[in-house]
Amino acid sequence: PSLPSNANPTGAKLGALREKFTGFQNQWETETKHRIDRDGTKLDTVKESMMKLESTLNSEIKRRVEANKALQAMFESQISSIQDRLEAIFIERVDKLQTSVDTLGDRMGTVERDFTLTREQYIQDIEDKNAVVAKD
């Protein structure tokens, strides 16, 4: 129960003070609510920016992974091509070497046959000469 403001000057002062506190409290609550709303909006903006950044980062990661896969496939293809060429060169050289070895083997066979024939003829000649010498 408040007294009329004219009746009691102290009561009037208290009432005015009470109204000031109520006004201050209302202003404080309003400013706090505005600050919370403002901070919430800033937080939402930051969250949205982070989501965009995450999306961009994921896209970049995917692009890099695809680029690395393509690069790896290209290198594997080049390595396979080089390996095929080296194998072809190696096989060609082994074939040439085998041909040379076969030719050398044939020549050695011919030399051995000629040597054997010559030796037999030499022995035969010596035997024939010995026989002639023995008759004489």
TrEMBL record:
It is found in: Cytoplasm, Cytoskeleton. Keywords: Coiled coil, Cytoplasm, Cytoskeleton, Microtubule. InterPro entries: SF_assemblin/giardin_b. It comes from the Eukaryota. Its main location: cytoplasm. GO terms for cellular component: microtubule. One of its GO terms (molecular function) is structural constituent of cytoskeleton. Belongs to the SF-assemblin family. This is SF-assemblin. The lineage of its organism: Eukaryota, Sar, Alveolata, Ciliophora, Intramacronucleata.
